[in-house]
Design goal:
Strand order of the largest sheet: 1-2
Helix content: 40-55%
Largest sheet: 2 strands, antiparallel
Order of helices and strands: HHHEHE
Radius of gyration: 15 Å
Oligomer: single chain
C-alpha cells in the first residue's frame, strides 16, 4: 500500500494562513510543519550514509528562540514552560 506525499500547496497554504494571523501558536505550528516537511520527512537527503558529506540532524543542530529575543534555549536543561514559550525554531546545517 503506497502513501501519497502531501502536495506542496498544502504546506504553502499553512504558511500563508499563519503569516497573516497574529497567533504565536499558529506561527510556531506552521514553522514546525515546514521544518518537518522539508527537512525531517526527507530521509533520503539527510540520513546517515558512508559518505562523509552527509550526516543526520542532531539535537545540537536545533535552536529554539524566545519571543522578541535572539536568545536561544539550552535544550538539554530547558523546562517544559521554557520550551512551550519558544516562538521560533531553526536548524543549522553544519556540513554545508
Amino acid at each position: 500500500h503506497r502513501v501519497k506525499p502531501i502536495p506542496i500547496r498544502v504546506i504553502q497554504h499553512i504558511m500563508t494562513v499563519a503569516s497573516h494571523g497574529h497567533d504565536p501558536f499558529q506561527h510556531c505550528l506552521a514553522d514546525m510543519i515546514g521544518l518537518a516537511f522539508f527537512y525531517l520527512l526527507r530521509p533520503g537527503e539527510y540520513t546517515h550514509s558512508p559518505q562523509a558529506e552527509t550526516c543526520p540532524f542532531r539535537l545540537c543542530d536545533v535552536q529554539l528562540f524566545l519571543p522578541n529575543s535572539m536568545a536561544t534555549l539550552d535544550l538539554a536543561t530547558a523546562t517544559d514552560d521554557q520550551l512551550l514559550a519558544a516562538s521560533s525554531a531553526s536548524l543549522t546545517f553544519t556540513d554545508q
